[in-house]
Amino acid sequence: MAQSKNDTVAVLSAFITLLRSPxxxxxxxxxxxxxxxxxxxxxxxxxxxxFILELISSQSLWDTPTISTADVRDAIRLSxxxxxxxxxxxxxxxxFSHYRTxxxxxxxxxxxxxxxxxxxxxSSRPLHILVGVLEGLDDVQMVDWGHSRVKLExxxxxxxxxxxxxxxxxxxxxxxxxxxxxxAKRAGVLDILSLNAELEKHFYTLIxxxxxxxxxxxxxxxxxxRALARSFxxxxxxxxxxxxxxxxxxxxxxxxxxxxxxxxxxxxxxQTVDATxxxxxxxxxFSSFLLPASAIIDILVAxxxxxxxxxxxxxxxxxxxxALASFAYxxxxxxxxFENYHRILFGSLDIVSGKGGVQAAERLFALLxxxxxxxxxxxxxxxxxxxxxxxxxxxxxxxILLPLAEEHSYRYQHRPSFEAAHTFFLxxxxxxxATFGTSASQSDFFDILLPNYLTILIKQINxxxxxxxxxxxxxxxxxxxxxxxxxxxVSLCRLYMSRLSPSRASRQVAIRxxxxxxxxxxxxxxxxxxxxxxxxxxxxxxxxxxMEEAFxxxxxxxxxxxxxxxxxxxxxxxxxxxxKEGKMGFWKARL
Length: 591
Description:
There is one protein chain. It is elongated and about 100 Å long. Among the domains are: about 190 residues, no CATH class; about 170 residues. The protein is built from 28 helices and no strands. The chain is about 75% helix and about 0% strand. Helix 17 packs across helix 19, helix 18 packs parallel to helix 20 and helix 22 packs antiparallel against helix 23. By secondary structure, it is mainly alpha-helical. The longest helix has 30 residues. InterPro entries: PEX8-like. It comes from Cryptococcus deneoformans (strain JEC21 / ATCC MYA-565) (Cryptococcus neoformans var. neoformans serotype D).
């Protein structure tokens, strides 16, 4: 152990000599940064203080052209978890190990802070050291850093304020790095309203620069977006005046992002060469928007569940959806690859439906429907919103969405909008059926919509654009809504079914419609099922599947008042349906 300490002291002495030397450092970046992490995490208090002061004062380190201040911060950040790991190892076999680990980790942090504060260097270097440590604290969830962290944050805030007052442009990235790690209430002492506006401008500048392959452009964009998100949270944690400014800031941000999304979509549509690099840039822009948008949705949800007036939250939720719509060309085929996207989407929809009602939905669709013609991606997005807000749709919204759904229900080449259109039709039928007996206008609407959609659906099934599974899911569902309307609507469903070519799927669907057939028609309908099953080859997989489907219908799906009729039908036809000797006993036993 003594030998190990002697080796460390010898190496430390050589490293400090290197830091003090005015000559350029010749160590590789990896070795240099690794040494910083090692010494920062392993030295005892006295040599650690000396090391920190030498680190701050080393001109050769901070002037190394291939090492950035972010690299130095990252090296120090890594040392925090290394310290905790070392302390854990030392205390693992003692009583109250967690308490002792926490106490020693806090002591280490307090010593680091004291050491940095003892430096007379008036540059931003001490602040870079402190921010690196602060970042590292958030990497270690098992330690409660206590008052030492509070003092560290207060010192970071104080020094940030001084740096920003001197030169905001030179220190903006450092501010962006630090602010996500600061307590919102403590950070409120900064002029966060002005800083929020500066962050926004910087964010939009980085969006433009990242398109031109600016060095570190994408990384800086992500850092700035996290800072922007935190600035919204800090504004929200302030007083009434701060929150009043927040609503304006959120609106400005969402509307600007909406415009940017529209410009990017237009740019992509006009591209004549390989669009892959452009598309990747657009994805990074959208991802950077989702970080602050996620913070916004948290703020909005908190506001609509509080006693405050919720109308600004509803307006901001509408604006969030408008911003998301401008990037629909990315999300319609992304398979959920954008983190937080669905959380923001459905959080906004919950606010609009729960607090905004028909009025907010009408405004939303009026704004979304202004673009003519709509791209396929935006059409899919509108129809998705229509499906989710189906109970809040007014006449004007229906007038926008229904023609759009009809158009895209035939456009199978673009699957997202095609499937969204059919889903929207199903939701409209379901919503109309739920109001039978309470709204004559809804009944009339259903009577018009049902044959129109059945015409579309049958054409798409016959064309092979709708899969058997989709058909088997949708048609019984439609017929169940028709049954709520009355026998004539069920007859209409049966009529359109007859326009399909016989297949296993169509026969399965016919069996699944039996629970919705009126009592007077059920015996003949069951007989037609028997005939359809007998038309399939004996011993075939189709016949077995259809018999199992029919058996399930009789024993599980028929209404209670039809169960006896169904069982009598099954017993009457079982000998004809069973094509293998000895199978009769199995079905009878199941009954």
